[in-house]
Amino acid sequence: MDYVLLNRIKTYGKISGNEEDELILQLIEAAKDTLNASGVPRYSDSELYSLAIERLVMHYYENREEIGANQQVPMGMNWMINHLKYGI
């Protein structure tokens, strides 16, 4: 479990308390899987990778409805994915 990232995300999302920790930890793994499925290798020391995870987790956290064809990704996410994937 990535408790450092959990704390960063709670700070980023202004989430207090521990009631949602299990959910947020699940969302962290889902965000890592999403990036990996997009062709992004798992980084451990990249701030951009951490920010991409934070943005995805908060997107998943705040948008819990069913995902449809019109679902938007967070602003700048496509750029982050391409930069992490290709270094551009």
Number of strands: 0
Most strands sheet: none
Strand content: under 5%
Radius of gyration, taken over Cα atoms and rounded to an integer in Å: 13 Å
Point out poorly predicted stretches: none
Helix content: 55-70%
Instruction: Give the N-terminus to C-terminus distance in angstroms.
Output: 30 Å
> How many helices?
4
- Let me know the average pLDDT: 86
Tally of discrete structural domains: 1
Helix/sheet category: mainly alpha
Q: What do you see in this structure?
A:
This protein has 88 residues and is mostly helical. The protein has one domain. Helix content is 60%, strand content 0%. Helix 1 crosses helix 2, helix 2 packs across helix 3 and helix 3 runs antiparallel to helix 4. It is globular.
Key words describing this protein structure:
single chain, 88 residues, mainly alpha, 4 helices, 0% strand, globular
Outline of the structure:
The chain has helices at 3-12, 21-37, 47-62, 77-86. The chain is mostly helical and 88 residues long. The longest helix has 17 residues, at 21-37.
